[in-house]
Amino acid sequence: MKTILTLGAVLAAVATATMTASAATPVPFPSPTVKQVFVAAQTVTTDGALSSWFTPGSPVVFRAYAVDPKTHQVINPKLVRYFYVSIPGQPNVKLTYGAKAPGASTGLPWTGTWNVPSGYALGSVPFRVLIQVRENGKQLKGEFDQMPSATAALTISATTPSLLTPGPTSGDVGAPADQALNASLYVDTVNGSGPVGIAKRPVGCSLTNVYKRGEQVVVRAWGADLSNSAVLSNDNVDSAHFTPTGASDVALNYGAHGPLYFWANAWVIPQSYPLGTTTLHVVFNLLGGKTASYDYSINVIP
Amino acid sequence: MRKLTSLTLVLVVAMLATAVAAPAGAAKKKPKKPAKIAFTGSYSGQASTLVSGGTVTISAKGTGSGTLVGSGAINASGTGDSTQQPCVPFGGTGTITGGGGTIAFKANPGATGCGDEGGHNFTVKVYLAVTKATGKLARAKGTLRAIGTYNRDDGSFQVKLTGLLTK
Question: Which residue of A54, A170, A221, B98 has the lowest C-beta tally within 10 Å?
Answer without folding.
Answer: A170
